[in-house]
Amino acid sequence: MGTMIDFARPDGGSTKGYLATAGADRPSLIVIQEWWGLNDQICGVADRFARAGYNALAPDLYEGRVTQEPDEANHLMSGLDFPGATNQDLRGAALHLKGIGGNVAVMGFCMGGALTIATAVHVPEVTLGVCFYGIPPKEFADPANITMPLQCHFANQDDWCTPEAVNELEAGLTAAGANAEIHRYDAAHGFFNET
Asked: Three-state DSSP class for 18?
């Protein structure tokens, strides 16, 4: 349904992403990949949102690299410039979608969940965030600085994004008076991934 495109970054560069469209002036969504890369699972999420009436853009944060091996995924994620991805790739995606029309939300999974929270802090063009089992370092994206509505989904049996880390995030959001919902499930990390 969707197609790979090039879109502009604020610094004048460009990046690639998978765009599935529902039409002009429709609400839009940035879909942020897991640590595996921009794979069929994430492109499928974008396609489902397009069928539901949303324009969906999934930036290719690893520049074409995809893996199914945890060690390689960890290597790729560790090499990602998180501030650059947030302020350039994800902000560029938001600006591209705003050019199509409608409000822009952001949703991400695992590493993409952490980048969703970072986007909620650093990208003013986005108006809503939905995070799945990811939390960025507080020094990069302090939840006290989130001003948009944020919904978060976490697993109770998660050893990467632990329940203790979720408790700390929730406490920070509550202390800041954020418009946030935290949902917890009796599941393991990655429960949204169908593969």
From this structure: strand
